[in-house]
Amino acid sequence: MLESLIGMYQRHEKYLAAFIGACLLGWFFTPYVHIFLGLKLGLIVGWFNYWLLMRRTHAMTKALAENKPFYGMGTIARIGSVILATIIATKLPEYFHIYSTLLGVGLVYVITFLDFIVYSLYRRKKFAKREG
Q: What are the start-end ranges of the H helices in the chain?
């Protein structure tokens, strides 16, 4: 179970790196610099939150397997990082677009959700071929 979770995270890392690369291209080659910088800031913060959640999930799985107590999933740290990104975007509006920053944070969860759907359909199709 944990191996598939780590594999899923590594797959999502590739997608997020591609999106951040696309933001860099948009930053360099379009006049919408503040929008792409806001998206990039949001994606980086969302990626950090996702990494933190995966790290805490790994620690929780290990603690449960060893019958040790486990406390918290890092919710305060994840909320704090989004608040920090929002503060940065509002204090520096000439560099970061606030709405694209928040869109970038949410885009990480959209990517994760879409990958889950596509991968589930792929696995279902793969198992249907094997049985049929």
A: 2-29, 33-65, 75-91, 98-131
| Cα separations in angstroms, 31 against 6, 63, 89, 115 | 38, 50, 18, 31
CA distances from 70 to 2, 53, 79, 125 (A): 17, 14, 20, 38
Q: Residue type for 127, please?
A: F
Nearest-angstrom CA–CA distance, 53 and 109: 12
The three-point CA angle 77-7-51 to 5° equals 10
Q: How many of the other CB atoms lie within 10 Å of CB of 47?
A: 21
Residue 67 three-state SS: coil
Q: Would you say 34 and 92 are in contact if contact means Cβ atoms under 8 Å apart? A: no
pTM of this prediction exceeds 0.90: no
- What percentage of the chain carries pLDDT values higher than 90? 66
Domain ranges of the chain: 1-30, 33-128
Rounded Cα distance, 91 and 38, in Å: 12
In tens, the pLDDT along 50-91 reads 999 999 988 998 898 999 998 888 899 999 999 999 999 999
Maximum pairwise Cα distance, the chain = 59
